C-alpha cells in the first residue's frame, strides 16, 4: 500500500483574510492512510543549539534512516509568499511558527518525499528534527507517526549552546541565529512551549543522551539506542532477513 499523506484541510484564513494561491499548501488528492501504516519514527529532541541537526544529518546518511529537519523545510520556502512572510514574522522574533503552518508544511514535504520515493516507509525509519515543537503539534502528528523513541539531547550549559548557535550563524550566514537576544528568546520559548512535549510520549520511549562531546562521540551514544530499534523493525535485506 502506498504510504502518502491525506489531503490537507482546505486553505484557511491567514491574518484575517482568505489565503491566496501562496497560502497554506494543498497536499494533493486524498488517499487511504490507515492508522497501521503510520511512519515508524525516531524524534530528535532538545533545546536550540544542542546538536539535533548535526546528528540528524549524520543518521540520514546511514542506510535505513531518513532524516527530515523541519527547519530545512521552512528555509526552503519562497519567502516572498504570504506563508513565507508569516514564517519570517515569527522566526525573526525567536517565536514558534503557528502549529497550523508548521503541520501543513510538514505534510506537504512528506507527501513529496514519498511520491518521489526519496523516503521509503517500508524500508526507512523516519528521523524527525525540529518537530513537534508544541503539544498541539505532537497531537496533530499522532495519526501519522509511530514514535519508536525520543532521543532527548541534553546540554545544561546554555551559554555554550548560545555560542554554538552564533558560530553556526557566522559560518552559514543564517541571520535568524545571529542576534543573541533572539537566540536567548528561543530558549525561553523552548522551556515554555517545547520542553513539555516530552510528557506527551511514554516515559519508556524517552531516552536521554548527553550532548556534550564531539559529534562522533555523541553519535555513538545515539547509535547505541537506535541501532537495536532499526534492527527490530527493518532487517537488512542483504542478509536475507528483511521484514515485510
Question: In order across it, which strands form the biggest sheet?
Answer: 4-5-3-6-7
Element order: H for helix, E for strand: EEEHEHHHEHEHHEH
Question: Approximately how much helix is present in the residues?
Answer: 40-55%
C-alpha termini separation:
12 Å
What gross morphology would you assign? globular
CATH topology: Rossmann fold
How would you describe this structure to a colleague?
By secondary structure, the protein is of the alpha/beta class. The chain has a single domain, classed as Rossmann fold, CATH 3.40.50. 40% of the residues lie in helices and 15% in strands. The chain contains 8 helices and 7 strands; from the N terminus they run βββαβαααβαβααβα. The strands form 2 sheets. A 5-stranded parallel sheet has the order 4-5-3-6-7. A hairpin with a 2-residue loop joins strand 1 and strand 2. The relative contact order is 0.17. About 13% of the residues have low confidence.
Amino acid at each position: 500500500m502506498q504510504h502518502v499523506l491525506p489531503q490537507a484541510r482546505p486553505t484557511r484564513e491567514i491574518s484575517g483574510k482568505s489565503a491566496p494561491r501562496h497560502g497554506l499548501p494543498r497536499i494533493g488528492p486524498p488517499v487511504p492512510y490507515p492508522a497501521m501504516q503510520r511512519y515508524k519514527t525516531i524524534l530528535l529532541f532538545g533545546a536550540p543549539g544542542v546538536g539535533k541537526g548535526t546528528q540528524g544529518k549524520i543518521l540520514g546518511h546511514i542506510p535505513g534512516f531518513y532524516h527530515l529537519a523541519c527547519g530545512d523545510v521552512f528555509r526552503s520556502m519562497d519567502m516572498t509568499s504570504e506563508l513565507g512572510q508569516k514564517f519570517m514574522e515569527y522566526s525573526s522574533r525567536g517565536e514558534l511558527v503557528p502549529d497550523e503552518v508548521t503541520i501543513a508544511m510538514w505534510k506537504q514535504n512528506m507527501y513529496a518525499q514519498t511520491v518521489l520515493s526519496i523516503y521509503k516507509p517500508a524500508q526507512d525509519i523516519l528521523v524527525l528534527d525540529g518537530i513537534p515543537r508544541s503539544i498541539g503539534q505532537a497531537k496533530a502528528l499522532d495519526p501519522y507517526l509511530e514514535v519508536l523513541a525520543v532521543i532527548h539531547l541534553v546540554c545544561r550549559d546554555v551559554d555554550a549552546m548560545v555560542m554554538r548557535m552564533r558560530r553556526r550563524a557566522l559560518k552559514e550566514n543564517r541571520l535568524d541565529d545571529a542576534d543573541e537576544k533572539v537566540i536567548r528568546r528561543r530558549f525561553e520559548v523552548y522551556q515554555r512551549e517545547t520542553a513539555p512535549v516530552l510528557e506527551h510520549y511514554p516515559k519508556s520511549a524517552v531516552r536521554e543522551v548527553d550532548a556534550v562531546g564531539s559529534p562522533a562521540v555523541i553519535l555513538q551514544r545515539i547509535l547505541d539506542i537506535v541501532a537495536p530499534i532499526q534492527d527490530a523493525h527493518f532487517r537488512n535485506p542483504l542478509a536475507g532477513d528483511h521484514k515485510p
